[in-house]
Amino acid sequence: MKYTFAVIPGDGIGPEVTNQAKKALDAVAEVYDHIFLYKEAQMGACAIDKTGVPLPEETIRTCKEADAILFGAVGDPRFDNDPSAKIRPEQGLMELRQELELFCNIRPIKAYQKLLKNSPLKKDIIAGTDIAIFRELTGGIYFGRKELSKDKKVAYDACQYSVDEITRITHLAFKEAQNRNKKVTLIDKANVLETSRLWRKTVTEIAKEYKDVALDFMFIDNAAMQIVMNPTQFDVILTENLFGDIISDVATVIGGSIGMLASSSIGEKYALFEPIHGTYSQAKGKEIANPLASILSAAMMLEYLGLEEEADAIQRAVDKSLDLGITTQDLKAKNQTAALTSKIGDFIADYIQNQEDSNMNFKNIHMGQSTII
Ligand code: IPM
Ligand code: MN
């Protein structure tokens, strides 16, 4: 089959990790006889530098014409410490989410057996963790009315949700739970916020349609503690935009490295796939960033397109790289040498294509450079 992917490398380490995901996709295309075409598009600080805006019209068009979108990261320290900046790289991502109505952000959090030792949390606490975070992505305080008073002494960000916005993601979360451990935890602040009370009411109503799925509730402050104290209690987490942003970053410590975590952002018509790590600007161009989150995002993209076997092939290659200790510095064991970002991509592509003799090939590629294996 022929597929066209919009590729938005973005800023920081975005381009280098996205390149590794493309290597994995190319290997899949070859083995499974597909044609994957890539249309590159600009977003973020690089787009501001080139065009003056963080999300050029052409990028939106490229995304709408594609079968799916593979995205790296946006952001730049030049803008972070300038509160008066009117144009920011992140606005590109916000606008794209809104323009494509990518209302459902799914972030799988898994404790890989091999990586239990990499988490600062105790092994026996995190072992077996398998959570799917469903974060609402196009509403709430991110997109509510924003205002700065005339005298610039008071600022507002309104948090707004409609029943419709809550309903559409809730159905997706419950459907996912039906294929998993049949539990949904709604995370909110219903003791304080009106929007949270609307979430509880709406979700409770919808839950009646999914009798095989258990629903429980947790306040966000408690959830932030529970997710590091007892993460295996969660199956599907359903939550609004800002709480989802925060809780998913907290949950990354379970995975051993934020460099492992992929995500999908889904709407009725379009879907975007991205690592959740962001730009990691200090590492830009140094070839030290972990590309696995981007590679796993590519796997999620294939799964979304119904290419399950192909997605599995990527997942198996990732598992193998962890088994062999072919990892970037964030995951390496004390007695191992870290592999470069591009070498991880080479290994993953190589393993997808050659499986068994891949170790040999990898050794050859690295002859004289590394003692990893
Ligand atoms: C994320 C990011 C974004 C967000 C930023 C870059 C605007 O942190 O995707 O989680 O807050 O949604
Ligand atoms: Mn975030």
In what range is the share of β-strand residues?
A: 15-25%
Name of the CATH first level of the largest domain: Alpha Beta
The name of the CATH architecture of the largest domain is 3-Layer(aba) Sandwich
Distance between the termini: 36 Å
The number of domains is: 2
Taken from the alpha-carbon principal axes, the silhouette is globular
Spell out which ligands are present.
3-isopropylmalic acid, manganese (II) ion
Write down the secondary-structure element order.
EHEHHEHHEHEEEHEHEHEHEEHHHH
Descriptive overview:
By secondary structure, this protein is of the alpha/beta class. It has 2 domains: 204 residues, Isopropylmalate Dehydrogenase (3-Layer(aba) Sandwich), CATH 3.40.718.10; 157 residues, Isopropylmalate Dehydrogenase (3-Layer(aba) Sandwich). Helices cover 42% and strands 18% of the residues. It has 14 helices and 12 strands. The strands form 2 sheets. Strands 2-1-3-12-11-4-5-10-8-9 form a 10-stranded mixed beta sheet, sandwiched between helices. Strand 11 and strand 12 form a beta hairpin. Helix 7 crosses helix 8 and helix 11 runs antiparallel to helix 12. It starts with a strand and ends in an 8-residue tail after the last helix. The structure holds 3-isopropylmalic acid and manganese (II) ion (MN). Manganese (II) ion (MN) binds next to helix 10. The site of manganese (II) ion (MN) has 2 residues, from helix 10.
